[in-house]
Amino acid sequence: MSDVPSDLKYLETHQWVRVDESGLATVGITGFAQQQLGDVVYIGVPELGTTVTGGEEAGVAESVKSASDVFSPVTGEVVEINERLEDEPEKVNEDPYGEGWLFRVKMTDDGELDGLMDADTYSDLVAAE
Predict the structure, then answer these.
(1) What are phi and psi of 125, to 5 degrees?
(2) H/E element holding 85?
(3) CA triplet 9, 12, 16: central angle to 5 degrees?
(4) pLDDT per residue as tens digits for the range 58-104
(5) Distance of CA 48 to the CA centre of its chain
(6) What Rg value do the Cα atoms of the chain yield, rounded?
(7) Is the torsion defined by CA of 57, 61, 67, 68 positive or negative?
(8) The pLDDT of residue 60
């Protein structure tokens, strides 16, 4: 079982969100998700300025063996994308909770975080799969 950082919130579709002190939300896929995908060869993320909706599709992660939709854990405007992944999608495999982040969102409702899983709940979900 992969590491599950305790400072993040999780979706059951295996995305994570980290909110900084300014309220900016960084989104990525979990260590478990990247392990299931295998070697990631392409990451599709929303365009800058796009509004994403919590729990809805916001992109795609493609590997040598499959493709998987990426869902946004929170609602808001995409204010930054990890452009490094265009040339180095393997960062998602190498460092899913660090350099492999996907996009950042200026949230419109931080109350959405209350509906997401904490690390213990997410760990239980992964253990059951």
Answers:
(1) -60, -50
(2) helix 84-87
(3) 35
(4) 999 999 989 999 999 999 999 999 999 999 999 999 999 999 999 99
(5) 16
(6) 13
(7) negative
(8) 96
